[in-house]
Amino acid sequence: MRRKLAAGNWKMNGTAASLAEIRALAEARSAPACDILICPPATLLARMAEALGEAPIALGGQDCHAATSGAHTGDISAGMLRDAGASHVILGHSERRADHDETDAAVRAKAEAARATGLVAVICVGETEAERDAGRTLDVIGTQLQGSVPDGATAADTVIAYEPVWAIGTGRTPTLGQIAEVHDFLRARLADRFGAEADGMRLLYGGSVKPGNAAEIFAVSNVDGALVGGASLKAADFGPIISALE
Ligand code: PEP
């Protein structure tokens, strides 16, 4: 049985004032029936870890470098994320793939660094609207999955997030049938590669998940939770999404 996961991606949002949101979330969720993960900007990680104390909310980075240290101005290593209180890291988000030309090979190298450091890698895959319109969705996702997930990945150290690029921040979502098709495909491809281990790997859906559509998305086959952007910033929005998963 896979434990569900509600993951929030704060992207480039949040300052010290936003710690009030995480405190409110922690107060309302003292014994959640699913895992909760917040990935704030790196500048907030350590303060958020301190604000959370023993609360059952995990923290993650939004990217890491493949190297452990060195001359990489502006970058952050997996070890630094751990040091700041993170247990997870989002890798290969479509915004990073687009803004920083991250290839599948680069994402895989980062995922290897994350695993070696003891961080859970939340690896994102997803098609653009043009790719979906051209009937290439499963091709694209299969290639990203194969190229981005390291050999030896396990259910304990790897989570896959299906995030159609055209659904992120747009208010649009695929049909439930389209989500099921992709998640069933991901499970089958992971099973081809990792055997029985794939049964335990959690598959998140991401892209315009809101309190109003969360329950129906979570009822779809092979959806083990969500990666949530905009609606994770406020406890008042993220709370009901978590409730829909519990
Ligand atoms: C995301 O950025 O991972 C995301 C899913 O964003 P949103 O929920 O805002 O569409």
Quaternary class: single chain
Annotation field: number of helices:
10
What is the correct CATH architecture? Alpha-Beta Barrel
Poorly predicted regions = none
Bound molecules: phosphoenolpyruvate
Q: Percent of residues in beta strands?
A: 15-25%
User: Which word captures the global form?
Assistant: globular
Distance between the termini: 14 Å
Structural class: alpha/beta
Overall helicity: 40-55%
Strand order of the largest sheet: 1-2-3-4-5-6-7-8
Provide the CATH topology: TIM Barrel
**Strand/helix succession:** EHEHEHEHHEHHEHEHEH
Mean residue pLDDT: 97
Radius of gyration: 17 Å
Main beta sheet: strand number and arrangement?
8 strands, parallel, barrel
Secondary structure topology:
Blueprint: E1 5-9, H1 19-28, E2 35-39, H2 42-52, E3 58-61, H3 78-83, E4 88-91, H4 94-99, H5 104-117, E5 120-125, H6 129-133, H7 137-148, E6 158-162, H8 176-194, E7 202-206, H9 214-218, E8 225-228, H10 235-245
Parallel strand pairs: 1-2, 1-8, 2-3, 3-4, 4-5, 5-6, 6-7, 7-8
